[in-house]
Amino acid sequence: MNGNTDTSNRPELIDVSVLYVEDDDKIREGLMRFLTRRFKTVLTAMDGEEGLSVFIAKTPDIVITDIKMPIMDGIEMIKNIKQRSPDTPVVITTAFTDVSYMIKAIELRADAYVRKPIDKDDLFNLLNKILIRRQTPTDDTSIIKREVQLLRDRYEKMKRMLMGAVEAASHALATIDHFTADHQRRVAGLSEAIVAEMSLSEDIIFKIKIAAMLHDIGKMHVPAEILTKPAGLTEIERAVVKTHAMAGYEFLRKIDFTFPLADIVLQHHEKYNGSGYPLGLNGSNILVEARVLNVADVVEAMSSGRPYRPSLGLDMALGEISDRRGVLYDPDVVDACLNVFGKDFKFQE
Ligand SMILES: [Fe+2]
């Protein structure tokens, strides 16, 4: 940590303490030189852990931080700082490629951001506006609120774009395998209703919808003659079908989503008691989105017709999840699913 508190010859310095956290030595030293010519106290740290220690020890007025850093990243540090001091403004510095980190920072109520490479004058103007906002806390049109709103708007736009891309992929899949595409769409509708019934966050609703729309995408890896086989599958064919969970994971894992989409898809056939596949995970070791998906998947699959059998009916599907509640299926998810149908949920045709 470095500090500059010698102000004897610098009456023009703004009487504010700034903490700047950045792991890149060159960037940190360059900006520190700039900041020390403008602010009375400038503290620096090289990673989130050191930044948090300095924050606790010195309680600076403003924090400027990189987000991708070793040891403790900026996200974790902001979380800790905002828990301790929700009103301390935090400005994140971010490269264009760090969008998913930036979104996480917004979710943690980061107050503003500057793009890397940092335009020092832009940063200085932003810090000044934040300081003015601190002095006039009733000013609702503050730059901070506008900045945060701008980030939120962009986040919402990104979510819409992602949903649009997923829907396009789903339509494309429908031309090859309409059973799977219809199944995914119907599972998405039921999963969304279950999550809403469980009073989980809006964000989980979005995640579950995306995951449900893609959960069987790995079936593109399974030969069509097996997927559409009119009679029952052999042992080997069943084993081939089961590879779709891992294949879906492989399709999706390289995409930098803001949530673990590939893992949700990987886990959608795991069972509450650990008897599922491919990993044999159990209980809360299975992501909650995957536990919801699993119940919705079973109910939709049983209550719809398949190439090899007619529909078994909704009553039998709900009987299955009730009978194995807490064994194969998460009891909270089963309860929510039963409530959803109790409120007359209908699958979209
Ligand atoms: Fe599946």
List the keywords.
Rossmann fold, 2 domains, six-stranded mixed sheet, binds fe (ii) ion, 55% helix, single chain, 349 residues
Describe the protein in words.
The chain has 15 helices and six strands. It has helices at residues 25-36, 48-58, 74-84, 99-107, 120-135, 143-176, 178-197, 202-214, 224-227, 235-242, 244-252, 261-266, 288-303, 314-323, 331-342, and strands at residues 3-4, 14-21, 39-45, 62-66, 90-94, 112-115. The protein has a six-stranded mixed sheet with strand order 1-3-2-4-5-6, with helices on both faces. The model is unreliable at 4-8 (pLDDT under 50). Fe (ii) ion binds next to loops.
Number of strands: 6
Measured between the Cα atoms of the first and last residue, the distance is 62 Å
Helix content percent band: 40-55%
Uncertain spans: 4-8
Concise structural overview:
55% of the residues lie in helices and 9% in strands.
Layout of secondary structure:
Layout: E1 3-4, E2 14-21, H1 25-36, E3 39-45, H2 48-58, E4 62-66, H3 74-84, E5 90-94, H4 99-107, E6 112-115, H5 120-135, H6 143-176, H7 178-197, H8 202-214, H9 224-227, H10 235-242, H11 244-252, H12 261-266, H13 288-303, H14 314-323, H15 331-342
Parallel strand pairs: 2-3, 2-4, 4-5, 5-6
Antiparallel strand pairs: 1-3
